[in-house]
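During the no-cost extension, the postdoctoral fellow (Dr. R.K.) reprocessed legacy sequence entries with the updated structure-token encoder. One reprocessed record is reproduced below for audit purposes.
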Amino acid sequence: MKQKLLYLLPLFLLSGCGQATYKNASLPAEERAGLLLKELTLEEKVSLMMDSSKPVERLGIKPYNWWNEALHGVARAGLATVFPQPIGMAASFSPETVYEVFTAVSDEARAKNAYYTSQESHERYQGLTMWTPTVNIYRDPRWGRGIETYGEDPYLTSRMGVMVVKGLQGTNDGKYDKLHACAKHFAVHSGPEWNRHEFNAENIKPRDLYETYLPPFEALVKEGKVKEVMCAYNRFEGNPCCGSDRLLMQILRDEWGFDGIVLSDCGAIADFYRDYGHKTHSDAESASAAAVLSGTDLECGSSYEALVEAVKQGKIDEEAVDVAVKRLLTARFVLGEMDEPEKVSWTGIPFSVVASAGHDSLALDMARKSMTLLMNKDNTLPLKRGGLTVAVMGPNANDSVMQWGNYNGMPPHTVTILDGIRKALGSDDRLIYEQGCGWVERAQIQSVFNRCKTADGKPGFTARYWNNVTRDGEPVTTAQVTTPFHFCTSGATVFAPGVNLTDFSATYNSVF
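Re-encoded structure tokens follow.
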């Protein structure tokens, strides 16, 4: 007990005697990080180097989850404004509007984080480090995730990406950053998806590398001052990107002067040694040591747990671990995440901005600007009103969830394609709607969903949700299902705001 008291005394009391401790908020963030680093054991340091960072209760360090998404709005955290997908925003050719969009997104992210913090909740998708934007070059339209990018042009991608970063990170309020953005996936990562965990980009000509693949990342680092860079799954010239000295040390840090955090894509370190991956390393210890020594500070995954043993085996020195941990701690201090919320001006952004009318209007403005008319032969458009017959067909026509895209939040209301066209038509126009087939089914179906109404006459079904599997107690939320059932939790999308991703139950009621 005497030893414990002697240990705690300098940590918590010496600040009153005028000596520096990491709790002194008047000190620069980097200095505070250095002071806190000295108090940590190796095991505690390693626990802070994974995306789901564990608390260190004896030092007052809260849990923190680095994995948060804001691709086109705050994602996977319930209610949020859903803006057009990046590929649509790129088609606006309006960097100014992109900046407005991501300023709104960062407002919502800060407001939501303040709310979650007030509830002592520190789960995934509730934090301040946004793994956005994706600035890989969209070279092949068969790459299914091309919608997350800003297209095939390095210059346009650079301009848009810089504005995303500036909108997300905002300005420093004199002490604290608003958010931290992340440029991903570094580098030469443009599909395909199926072999990304073992693919080796080895025949990239230097000119193509520096004129096509690298310019957006360089712009985000030098002009955007992005705070994080995510290394890609694939190999580059034989080495996994998250263990590539050429990419992370020579180009990123030495040539471009990047001094922020490098983090791995999720599971990328395990790809170093797993059978389905690159098999460039023998085990988790060797892989984790190599990644840290090449400059990867933070892992999305759990392979870094092996770093403790890697130090013991002499595969890496603890001083190299310290370099990474200090960067991580500095970021948490400069975001204000380690201090009392009331000291951070950004926590004053009200929750009312989330999915607000102003942000909804901005999303509509961006959607309109994203429309690109390639040809209007014989002035077919605009269609002449009156006496029109319009046919709307296909599985996406009346699907609201499809409209949200991927890596998305949940808007309070969605207008489907069918709803929008129906609203635009006049009383003397005719509308024909047929869903036809599903996305992959061979059968043709006819839905009778539109003949279902709730007890009070509203279209669709009334849904009640419980955050348990037995429907015990009062429902956590009630919602109106106004479009055919296409619920799916893939992509970590919940069925309704406030409902758990797993271990929940529901009842749907309607009158046919």
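Residues 1-17 have pLDDT under 50 and may be disordered. Residues 25-352 form a domain with the TIM Barrel fold (CATH 3.20.20.300). The remaining legacy entries will be reprocessed before the final report is submitted.
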